[in-house]
TrEMBL record:
Naturally occurring in which organism (per UniProt): Vibrio diazotrophicus
Cofactor entry: Zn(2+)
InterPro entries: Phosphatase_YcdX_put, PHP_phosphatase, Pol/His_phosphatase_N, Pol/histidinol_Pase-like
Key words, A-Z: Hydrolase, Metal-binding, Zinc
NCBIfam families: PRK09248.1 (NF006702)
Binding site for Zn(2+) 1: H8, H10, E74, D194
Highest taxon listed in the record's lineage: Bacteria
Gene3D superfamilies, A to Z: Metal-dependent hydrolases (3.20.20.140)
Name of the protein in its database record: Phosphatase
Note on how the cofactor is bound: Binds 3 Zn(2+) ions per subunit.
Length: 248
């Protein structure tokens, strides 16, 4: 499966990542990506930038090293109500919002609580994708969450780092279950390297292989073309990005 968008990447601004956005864009160009989502951790993650970092992304050029730049965030889910750690003023400046559960911010709880949390995140309307759902510390009921994601056009991320065994250990089994059932339900999938160093940009081989294993239709993998990704954002109610007119 040919992936041309990396929808989950970090820069040095996240506090525990080691490359700049310029370095990430250069690596993206060298690896054949067409679009790069820059998604630093939102403020409640230890070491993360102030919310001005996200509100000010409007100053970023739309292209760096001939790669289209999507202004994004990996927001932290705060509570069972599905609230995120960004003020309302931030969303108008962002093209792409991932919501994730992170142990330093959201203490793992019960299957029931995790399930209701994810459903409330989806229904909030603020989130375009759910990040690294395979984390075994946050088990949830797959069917209601995936069906809710389908209903509200929220993408399910297949996170390559989760499949390496180096982070969120044990995620591979859960990710496999999510992709298998998600394919049956008909959710949209997105793929992210979760790069914290530029050399990890576009490292999506494991995510791609998992999607292929379950014969997921490319039309449901929004990162397989610039048109699919950008039109998914329109489906989500985002404004058209005129600088990317040739990519729709």
């Amino acid at each position: 499966m040919n992936i041309v968008v990396d929808s989950h990447t970090h820069t040095i601004a996240s506090g525990h990542a080691y490359s700049t956005i310029i370095e990430n864009a250069f690596e993206s160009k060298n690896k054949g990506l067409r679009l790069l989502c820059t998604t630093d951790h939102a403020p409640e993650m230890p070491g993360a930038p102030h919310y001005w970092h996200f509100n000010n992304q409007r100053i970023l050029p739309r292209f760096l090293h001939q790669v289209g730049i999507l202004r994004g965030v990996e927001a932290n889910t705060l509570n069972i109500d599905g609230e995120l750690d960004l003020p309302p003023s931030s969303y108008q400046h962002l093209d792409w919002v991932i919501a994730s559960l992170h142990e330093p911010v959201y203490k793992p709880a019960s299957v029931q609580q995790h399930t209701q949390t994810l459903i409330n995140v989806i229904k909030s309307g603020k989130v375009d994708a759910l990040g690294h759902l395979g984390n075994p510390n946050y088990p949830f009921e797959l069917v209601p969450v995936l069906e809710c994601a389908k209903q509200h056009n929220v993408a399910i991320e297949v996170n390559n780092t989760s499949l390496t065994g180096k982070s969120r250990k044990g995620s591979d089994v859960r990710c496999s279950e999510i992709v298998k059932l998600g394919a049956e339900i008909g959710v949209y999938f997105t793929t992210g390297s979760d790069a914290h160093f530029c050399h990890e940009i576009a490292r999506l081989n494991l995510a791609s292989a998992l999607l292929e294993k379950y014969s997921v239709d490319e039309s449901k993998v929004i990162t397989t073309s610039t048109s699919r990704f950008l039109n998914f954002l329109l489906l989500r109610g985002k404004p058209r990005i005129e600088e990317f007119s040739s990519l729709y």
